[in-house]
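re: ur question from yesterday

yeah so i grabbed the chain u mentioned. its 163 aa long if i counted rite. heres the sequnce exactly as i have it in my notes:
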Amino acid sequence: MSVNYILSWMGESAVARFILDNAWVFPTLETLHFVGLILLAGPIFVVDLRFVGIASGMSLRSVIPLLPISLLGFVINLTTGILFVFSDPFTYYPNLAFRLKMLAVLLAGCNALWFKFALDWNNLTDVPGQNTRTSIRWVAGLSLLLWTSVIVLGRMIPYFEGI
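ran it thru and got these structure tokens back, copy pasting raw so excuse formatting
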């Protein structure tokens, strides 16, 4: 099965037709995507800033419960993002900014999984022999960089059309 076949199937699907044939759908998806971005990035940035030491006045116990809000934002953005691609797959797929954004999302997801599963949340320790604070700061700093890249690259998509 070729990429062109999949892109054609997406572009000719009932989902694509619904999005393109109803003037209110795409703006609604954009609004939901923006709300999802706020729910995703806001809590992640607060938690990451706390871990890199910038917001050290906040306790970990107060910022960690914010992370499920980020998951909700991610689900909203994943759903609306997939629908955007369905609406115009031959524009999104070859777009360099879109591809780099998807790479940044993938790397940010891997970073989040490492953060979740490699750390001992009871003791906030990870690999024996490593400085836990340094390790956490690197992971949080990388998270800030990757999610900022996702936001910037998402804004760049319209400017990379045809490149």
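noticed a couple things. The mean pLDDT is 89. also The CA atoms of residues 36 and 75 lie 8 Å apart.
anyway ttyl
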